[in-house]
Design goal:
heterodimer; A: alpha+beta; four-stranded mixed β-sheet; 5 helices; 4 strands; B: GMP Synthetase, Chain A, domain 3; three-stranded mixed β-sheet; 3 helices; about 30% helix; about 20% strand; elongated
Chain lengths: ~110, ~90
């Protein structure tokens, strides 16, 4: 895939899905501890999300870093907005900010 | 100079932190993608610096990413950051 095609694909995923996690592996089988940690936070928070495995496509793995100007994976997006990686998501969950953002953006949760 | 020393030097010069801790966490990731036999691929960094005051979490991490862009493009596979402004130090971890 050319660079623009990848960026367009990322944009589409982020536009069409309320919560998107670009990660290594899948939500069921994360291939990296940092991705696994974010999956766990989202599960605990009761958030339904789409996990996109960057390991399936090297151009996606590089493209997502350019898209957000962020050098590492995982990357969490809520309603089109880049939230952060593992450190930020964990800190925000611990402080209650993540719930706040989810409420503000009207993201449904399951108990 | 080891990667850990380079990270410490660059962050110290750029941010003049009042506290800095750079821990090579590579051993915990041994054997999985990105790990190398000599370690020095996964780091945990804690910094207390005035430069973080008034900045969001994203802005703080972007600042550190920019200072360490060569390392992130090269040997460093994972970088876990705790970035604290001086007036936040001593509070429980955010």
């Amino acid at each position: 895939m050319s660079e623009n095609v990848v960026i367009d694909r990322i944009q589409k995923e982020v536009d069409e899905n309320p919560v998107v996690l670009f990660m290594k592996g899948t939500p069921m089988f994360p291939q990296c501890g940092f991705s696994a940690a974010v999956v766990q936070v989202l599960s605990e928070a009761g958030v339904k999300f789409k996990g996109i495995d960057v390991l399936t496509d090297p151009s996606l793995r590089e493209g997502i870093k350019q898209y957000s100007n962020w050098p590492t994976i995982p990357q969490l997006y809520i309603k089109g907005e880049f939230v952060g990686g593992c450190d930020i998501v964990r800190e925000m969950y611990a402080s209650g900010e993540l719930e706040q953002v989810l409420d503000e953006k009207d993201v449904p949760r399951v108990a | 100079m080891t990667v850990a020393e380079t990270i410490t030097r660059k962050l110290s010069e750029a941010l003049a932190p009042s506290e800095i801790q750079v821990v090579d966490d590579s051993a915990r990731h041994a054997g999985h993608s990105g790990a190398r036999p000599g370690g020095e691929t996964h780091f945990n960094v804690t910094l207390v610096a005035a430069a973080f005051a008034g900045k969001s979490r994203l802005e703080r991490q972007r600042l550190v990413h920019a200072i360490l862009s060569d390392e992130l493009a090269g040997p460093v596979h994972a970088l876990s950051l705790r970035l604290i402004a001086p007036d936040e130090a001593g509070r429980p971890a955010p």
